[in-house]
Amino acid sequence: MTDELADDPRKLSALVSRVSKLASEYSVPSVIVGLVADEGDTTFPEYVHYLQSALRVEDAIFRMTRERAVVHLADVDREQAVQVLDRLAGAFADEFPAQAPPNFRIQFYEAGADIGELKVKDVLTRIFVACTLH
Predict the structure, then answer these.
(1) Count of domains forming the chain
(2) How much is the pTM?
């Protein structure tokens, strides 16, 4: 893993394409999550690194900037996605007690079989326009 704090944009396009394909061709629901931290938050990049190591193989994370990330959770609904991220945030706080607990805004987008073809700009609009504090 590199020390860069942002991923190649082509990775996001591939992630969104995969979500569309899983939903439309295989009827596998997914949730795309937008995570946003306050500018200069030093814990958030560490939390994103932790998520990368804690997520399942079929899940993915895309680091947009130091304070923004997109998470793809496959084969879950919104309620399950909330539970997964709550559990991982708790595990992060337990494993790194010296770090401040994760404090970020979060927005969920559930992609079901009826979504059609997703476009990156549509997904980003849905998960970053109205992020709420979590």
Answers:
(1) 1
(2) 0.88
